[in-house]
Write a structure and sequence with these properties.
single chain; four-stranded parallel β-sheet; 296 residues; alpha/beta; Rossmann fold; 11 helices
Amino acid sequence: MIGSALTKELHRKGHRVVILTRKKKAGEPDFKEWNVENGTIDEDAIREADYIVHLAGANVADGRWTQKRKKEIVDSRVKSGELLVKTLSSISNKVKAIISASAIGWYGPDSQVPNAKPFVETDKAYNDFLGQTCVQWERAIEPVRQLNKRLVILRTGIVLSNEGGAYAEFKKPLQLGMATILGSGKQIVSWIHIDDLVAQYVAAIENEDYSGAYNAVAPQPVSNKEIVLTMAKQRGKFYIPVRVPAVALKIALGEMSIEVLKSATVSAEKIQTQGYQFLYPQIGDAVKQLAEAIKE
């Protein structure tokens, strides 16, 4: 979802984008093969690149967190980062910077923060599955700094996009006239519009002042209830608020329900200080744009 939107914008800006894929199709010169499990990569893709955007990683929300699934989630992020580092260190290249995804899963629940302050980039990772996954994820790509490469890490919040992800799941019950509120609905969601996330990746590529970790979240996080009701009102149709009890989510989702029910207020101050101006800082504007985009 993110890669497709970013590729489209980079093409619009005149960049050439070479995509690493597990299955290259014939006649597509801008697709190069890599196989993370086997540790292989088309080295020409690295030699030709000025920048690397590292988005690889199994979908965290795609299925229950069995031990097998957890290993896949971690390995897909760690081994891909390690393969990029190994290749960059072993062949000649002109790569100026690596822009790597991470997630606000790095942070714990709001209850872990004294005085209810939002999480900032210098806060320690939380000692749970996603927190430690993010640690390994970021640690795997960190050695590129020793190769004199600029490294930018975008710890991404809940991405709002019509093309998939959490927003698409929120919309499904609304089509049946139900505004589904998860648990108490009070949990804070640190979200970001897909256009803002793409713009931040582009800014991290083009602006050499970007370095280190940034929270890729909108400056005004809101509750789960507010997101869902804002979406419902935007539709302009009758809807019934329906609460899904926390216990039902725990039965349905298992350990993953912790993330669905977790309240995490994450700060966007650092990237704003860097000069980034949000296209959609408020949830109402973000939801309105996404609704209008479907009608176009």
